[in-house]
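Saturday, quiet lab. Running sequence design on the structure tokens for the scaffold JK sent over.
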């Protein structure tokens, strides 16, 4: 059981490293939860680790891995934007734009899209002006 002084339930910036050291499952420390490969640095990710018991809502259905879908409450003012993955279908983008437009607490959020270079394979994040349609 986690307590309030253990660093969980706190937003933590992900650390990007050139090579993640291999770990034995029995030796995994908490830092592995906040570490990603250098190739993901463009995401500028922040993470929070929460107990499943803290879920605001349980959808009662399973994801593609057979795990229950849990939803957690997040203050709207901390959501600065949404990045749509480069392989996301247009229907998903439409649904995201609609959800943001319908929630007045999220209208400040910028929509950006990941774009992969055909030449280098590098992924860049592209601003999509006209934030909410």
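Result came back. Writing it out in full:
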């Amino acid at each position: 059981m986690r307590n309030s002084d253990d660093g969980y339930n706190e937003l933590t910036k992900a650390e990007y490293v050139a090579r993640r050291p291999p770990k034995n499952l029995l030796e995994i420390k908490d830092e592995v939860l906040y570490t990603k490969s250098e190739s993901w640095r463009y995401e500028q990710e922040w993470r929070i680790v929460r107990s499943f018991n803290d879920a605001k809502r349980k959808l009662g259905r399973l994801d593609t891995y057979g795990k229950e879908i849990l939803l957690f409450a997040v203050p709207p003012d901390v959501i600065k934007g949404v990045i749509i993955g480069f392989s996301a279908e247009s229907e998903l983008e439409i649904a995201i734009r609609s959800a943001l437009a319908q929630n007045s607490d999220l209208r400040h959020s910028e929509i950006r899209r990941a774009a992969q270079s055909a030449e280098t394979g590098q992924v860049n994040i592209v601003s999509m002006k006209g934030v909410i349609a």
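Notes for JK: Residues 90-102 form the longest helix (13 residues). The chain has a mean pLDDT of 82. Ask whether to fix the surface positions before the next round.
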